[in-house]
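HUMAN: Mind sharing a backbone?

ASSISTANT:
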Amino acid sequence: MTIYVFDGTMDGLLSAVFDAFFLKEEPEQLLTGGDVLPLFCDRIYQVTTDGEKARRVWAGLEKQLPKEALRMISTCQLSELQELWQPLFKVVCKVFRQGPGVVRNYADADVLSVTQIARRVIHEAHRMMQFVRFQKAKDGTYLAVISPDHDVLPLVIHHFQDRFNDQLWLIYDAHRHYGYHYDGQSPPLRVTFEKEASVPFSLTDGRLSEDLLSSDDQLLQDLWRTYFKAICIRERLNPRKQLNDMPRRYWKYLTEKQLLSN
């Protein structure tokens, strides 16, 4: 049994594909550095991530695959799931060995697994478009905090640029500690805070501190929560459907799920 160990990045995976073809071998497993090695194996090969190797493999995929399949590969890597790498590695290798038609063979367990993971990422990206709630700071910047299961911020940022192209805003991923800031003119810029203590909002519920929150926005938040409560028809409550439409893991950043100000 031959095992490849890589760094858990997309460039690392593409470098592993390059090395597998260069060495003319088919490793049984692809593991990351933190994975537990099996008790018995004939050879462990440490993959060195190489940008040039990764570029050449991706260029080969671009020649072989349609844009939809390339988008699927780019999307599924945002899942951050450990179980993705093994089937994705096999799918990329199969593209070069069997041809581009393999990505449409959903009877293939590896293709099906990669496709399902990509769909999960896309589904959560759509959720983020629905559940982002902005707060207005005193300087006029609108802030929204999210914490999705998958790293979907790169997929949704252009949606908000198109929809709020005349406003200043910051959307921040509290789980991954980065965000995008839009100044109303230039493309959204990726930003991070050097220290957690310098973050001007709560990572727990995403709320701006009172000294930074615009006074009129606090009023609007209270009005929205009051409206949300007023339209609730108790006789027609359906908690199961609400949880299906609005999963509980998103509630902590939703304005309508936070308590009214005193």
Summary: The radius of gyration is 23 Å.
